[in-house]
Structures are given as structure tokens and as C-alpha cells.
User: Fold this.
Amino acid sequence: CSAPLKTPSRLKQCIVKLFVQPSRGLVDEKFIILVQKAPPGYQLTVHALHKCEDGHSWEAFGHYISNAIGTVNVSEDPSLGGTYSGVEQMGLLWSLRPVPGSKPGLRLRKMNVQIPMEVTISVYQGHQTEGFMDQVPLASVVVERWYMAPGVSRIPITEDGLTATLFLPPGPGPFPGLLDLWGGGGQLVEYRASLLASHGIASLALDYLTPKITMETRKMVDLQYFEKAYKILEQHPQVHGSSIGMLGLSLGTSITLKMAAYSEVMKLRCAVCISGSHVQPVDGSMEDILKNADRTRVSEENEFIWRDLLLPVPSDLAFKVDMGRLKCPLLVVVGEDDQNWPASESAMDMKEMMEQAGNSHLLTVLSYPNAGHLIEPPYTPHARASLFRSMATREKMMALWGGETAAHSLAQEDAWRKLLVFLRENLYSGTNPGTPSLSHL
Amino acid sequence: MIVTLRLSTMSPPTSPILSVQPTRGLVDEKLKVVVESLPPGSPVTLHSLHHSEDEDYWEAFGHYVSDFRGMVSVSEDLSFGGTYTGKEDMGLLWSMRPVPGSRKGLRLRKMNVCSPMLHNISVYSGHVSEGFREQTPLTSVLVERWYMAPGVKRIDIMEKGVRGTLFIPPGPGPFPGLLDMWGGGGGLIEYRSALLASHGYVSLAMDYFNSQELESADLEFKYFETAFNIIKEHPQVIPDRVGMFGLSLGSLVTMHVAAESTIVKPRCCICVSGSHFYPRDRTIKEVIMEPRSNSHRLRIDENNHHVWRDMWIHLLDDPSKKVDVGKINCPILLVNGKDDQNVPADECAEDIALLMNAAGNGHLLSRVLYPDTGHLIEPPYSPHFRASNFKAAGVATKTVMLLWGGQTKPHSDAQEDAWRKILSFLQHNLYSSTPPRAKL
Assistant:
């Protein structure tokens, strides 16, 4: 940019100080942002800037007024405007959005978990809403956000035709294990598994739509693929073989429920299903399960909506997983504004089925109003819609995920905390009283 | 060698859960170490292990007992044995010492500040005092301790004959600056400068030994003035907010420059463990050699450690052998240990106070003196060494075991307290917009 940078005038002499604690934290840790030594009663904008791996810039900002001693504390003071408002300790992260002029349909996902997300937090004079890059801030610091705690090992897994990555917590073990499945977009997405390993669970991120074997043979994997992944975990010397759970989001839920109910090989200790459904052809193959993506509906903004494909929830038992067969605790997480899958309706039907079968004591449903489909680890930006390459149609299109940003972000924070407690309670011995402290989250 | 056991029971693992916060922190940040899901009332050992850049192993450990919930909280519970006892939230770091069987006279210093120090924090069953490597801990985590905050820039300086490393805080600035000088061991020691930059000061760690230019006293003086000006003229530095920070010999240089320079005007000075013995018109090398001519005053104690403390005392009576501290005209903070066995810091501080009061600038002086504290007053939570191997740089001497002094617990307390006072002194004098006052 060749225009001269605007330097704030006499405010410079006050040397505003900015602190962010911790300066290096895990993605699910809260931080405290303090601005000090500003003039009292002064208008300030606290701004966050992140350049993602794809080269796109994301920003968020909040408008504040310093108190009588010239301090702003983002965890205690309300934002009066910006990309978030009210008292929002983590608003600068969850309200991140692509900077003006960016191409539409972006989604923020970390693919390389071995290096952190770097976020530049700055303080600007006045209540600004644009042109941040043309100004010199009063102060700025860099904050690192990690998906991997120190000592977590990252182990690529290629045996048995699998395309997967195993994340092991530090320490001797043995650890409980978890199979981690994403949805219809495919790829090997590692960040949730690495974060779970940072919480003491040996986690295997599994690519089941675009693994090497499928790319080479053009054939979808069969259900034994998942059982092989399970066995890898079960037989690992640092994994406690009888303490393995499974977590799936979206299409991953379909697989998880199928395995939990029907697999003879997998003895799951617990399962977590996020934004998914039990509706699927019971005797179907992977391809059958995927065929659901064929029926679509288009919204006003030309965003494809998928949710209707599975509705209404069938009463025919040939078309949904027999929930009565479940023998392990199940946590179901749904967003009531999910525009991609009828997760809410499915959850209600699952509950009914389990009540009738007498195993509903195993079920916990977390249902979040105004939350959308992509319920991810907390403090990552919400995408109401984004470009999505469907595995079924192979085309890139705009998918509507749903959710209203503030409510969705709150849902992510709450769901993650409850998910960790659920996994801890079910994968570790429950004999000791009291839940482990996760108060730093 | 750690043997990994494969448990084949059907019940879920009962391993306790260890959480250390933050897992990646600055070296002067406190740690919160909590163990949960232990059997209630069970004895455990918390252990920390560090593998240094020199390939030595350092360890610390504390003996605890879990409560009725099966929990141990290091910041709240007491250690009943180990390398530290009592309620010590940072004991696992400051009480570290070389593992049994290590070489003698070791000192722990981080030379590469771009990478963190790694500590393995583990929980062992029972109250263990040795043989940690032959046992498998119940659980362990890895913790990173950094001297550099994210965004701090590290720049090699080779300018106008000055060699050093400049550390610049993140952000547009401008920032106050600091000239940072270590002691007679020489070399380019960066960690304190990196840490100061992480606190918002542009800091230049200077290499003022091994330099061919340092031959005459005059040139040498100019070397420090040039270094000071490099900071002062940096586009991200506020020119009238540059201070000086020295330890040991670096303190001496600081006082000398503050008193005698007509070009350089430090905004404030911090002198840790320094004396004010600087014979006029002598070079630094000669200052170091001064004790050699007094080798009859060198004492070697019962452990074969060299004690230099008393070699300098006679200089107190000779004004021509001391910095003219009456000419210092900026706030100056002296930080000293009462058990400093290398330099008679206590006596020097007293003498400096006398001289400055007589000259009328005593109001600029603040001093802190810590009991049972030795010479090497470093950033907090770093281990204490009562003696270590030392080879004076630039002088043809052999390596000796030099006695620094101090008892571990009081010395570590002093480091923690001094650092806080140092940061607050710097904040007040270099950041505050009102004219600086000397007294803390």
C-alpha cells in the first residue's frame, strides 16, 4: 500500500500497552486481552488479524471505551460494536470473517497442525470499522493458537490400506483411544484428533472418502476399512484396547452409528455423533450411504441446501439404524438451524427408538438453538455457508450450513466442553469422585 | 531406559490426569500443576526433567499426598521432601539440579532463544528420590518455556564495530530501549534481552569480549557509546527512553558509562551484582587482571572453589579506583545478594550510597539487598548454582570452579522478587509519561 500511514497523534506519548495471556495457547483455551495506559474514557478498537494457510486474511474487531484508569479488559468490558458485541472474551476469534474483498464461500480450517495459527491482536484509536491495514495501530502483539500440545506425537498410518494419522498424547500411556471421522468433504482432516490427543486421548483421524486406496482404484472403501482402523488402535501398545470410542460429524455420524450398532469387531466404549443422522439404508454399502447427497434443494442465494434429502424420518426400519442395538453411551450433538442434515429431527427419532427399546439411559442429546451444521472445536470462525466439493457429484458448490454466528459459537464452546467431559467419564475409570477440572477452557 | 508396560485388563485405564498450565509459557510466567484422579490419600512424586543444550540432564522433584478427591495441586499443597519442600508453586523449576552422576560445575543457560526449553513433568507413584529413569511414571506432560514471546524479532547486529543481537517487541512501536550487558564470562548471551523484548523493550545483547577493537580504554568507552546510540537511533526506539542493564562486570560498565559519558545519557540504569571498582583509564581487560595482581588475596575454600570476593575490598579506600558515582544523573537501581562470594556487593552498595549522598545525587539511588543470595541473580525460576565452572573470556586463564554464593531457596526467592522489581522500575522510568522518580 503506497498511501502514507496515518499515525495517531498525541496518543503516542501515552504508549498504550497491550497484553494477551496466554500468548501461546491451545485452540480451545480462553485468553485474556488487556489494554492499559490509554487515556481514560477513550474510544478504542481491538482488532484481530489472521492470515490462513490458503493466504486469505480474516479479521474481527470490537469497539471499547477505556475506563477511569485507561484500561480495557476484553473479558469483562462490553464491546459496543464491531464483528461482535457485548462481553465476549473470545469474540475476536469466533467472529473472524474474511476481510472485505475476499472471494465468497471461504471456510477456515487448519490443515498443518504442527505449526500454530498466528493471530495479530492490535489496538486502534477510535471506533473503526474498516481500513485497518492503512493505519498504524497503537500497539500490537502476536498470539499463537495451537491444535497440538507439546509432546503430542503425530504418526502417519498407511498400513492395511488406511489413510490416517494417529495422535498420541505425551507420557507412557496407555491412553484411551478414539476414531475421529469428518464428513462428506473428504480429505484427511487432523485438527480435532490432534486437539483430543492434547487432552489425553490417543486419536486416529481417518480419511474414508478420499484415501489413497480410493484415489488409486476409484473404488469406495468398504465397512471393513473402519474395522481395520479400530484394530490399529486396539493393538497399539500405548492404547488401552478396551477403552476406544468413536466420534463422527455429519456423514461421519452415519458411519459411527452403523459401527456402534452392527459391527462385530468394534467394541466401542462410547460414541459421539455431531450434526448427523441415523437414517441410512441399513444393509447399504458406503456408496449407498453417500447416495443421499444426490437430492438437493437450492436457496435464494443459490446456496444448496441438503437437509430435506432424508426427511421425513422413515418409520421403515430398513432405512435407519436400529438404535435399540446400541450398548454404549451415546452423545448426540445437534444444531437446530442445521441446513445441511436434518440432525434435530433425527435426534428426536433416535430418542424415541431408544425409549421404546429400553436403552435410552445411554443417550444424551445436546440441542442448540440457532446453531448450524458445522459444530467444531470452540473459538474458530463460523461459516453459515461455504464452498463445498461434494464427493457424490464431484462439483464445487455453495453449501448452506446454517447457524447464527454468536449462538453457533456459544454452542461450539458448550458442546466441546461437554464432549470432553463425556469422553473422560466414559473412557477413563469412573471410580474417582469429581469431574476432572477443565476450568482453564 | 523406560520400559513401557502393556496393560491387558478389561477395565478402563486408571491413570491419573496431569494438567500443567500453560504448556507453552514465557520463562517468567508461573505454572499451575494439578494432578487428578489419583487414589485418595496416596503418596506421589512430582518430577521435572530437562535435557539441556549441553546434553546434561537436570531434575527437580517434590513429595506430595493426594487429598480425599485424589487431587494434588502444587500451588496449594505442600511438598514433604525432594529438591524443595513446603508450598512452592515453581519449585519444579527453580530447584532443578544436575542428575546424579553428572559432570561437576554445571550451569544452565539457554543459548538458542528461538527454541523453547523443554521440561518433562511426570507423576510417579510413591515418594521417590532416585532412579527416576528406571521407573515408568504414571503420567507425564511436556512443557515449553520460552524466552521469546511470539512476534519478537531477533536481528544480528554487526555495525560500527559493535557485535550483538537486537530484540524488537512485536507491534509498530516506538518502544523504550535497553543496552543489556552480562559479565566476565564473555560471549553473546541473548536470553535476558529476548525476555526484556517480550516485555516491550527493544534490547541489545552486547558481545563486548573477544573483540579485537577493545585494546585501549578510550576505544572501549566509545564501543559502549556506539552501542547505546545504535539503539537510540533505531526507528522503533524512543530516543530519550534508553536505559542500561548490567550484571556483574556489565554493572560496572553501566555505572562507568552513566558517570563519565558526555555523549550517552541513559534514562535509567539497573546494576545487578556489580561493584564500582573501575580504575580510571584502564581497559576492561586490565580491570579483570586487577585481581591477578592481588592473587595473594584469592581464597580457595574447602571445596576447591575460588572465592574472589575479598580480592577487591582494599579498593574501597581508594577513590581513584572507583567509578565517580557522584556524576550519575539518572535513576539507578542496585540489585545485590548478601551472600555474593564473587564481588563484595553489599559493601559496594553501601559505599555507592555514601558517595552519592555526599555528591547530592543520592535521591537517584534505589537498592535492594537479598539475604542468602549469591552473585548470579538471573530471571526467575532458573536454577541456582552455588559454584560453577568459569573461564574468564579474553584472558589466558584456566577454567576454575568459581564460588558464586547463595542458598538455593532464598536465592530463588530473590530472583523472583528482583525480576518483578526490575520490571516495575523499568516500566516506571521508561514507559511512564511523567518525569521519572528514583525511589521505587
The domain at 17-146 of chain A is CATH 2.60.40.2240 (Immunoglobulin-like).
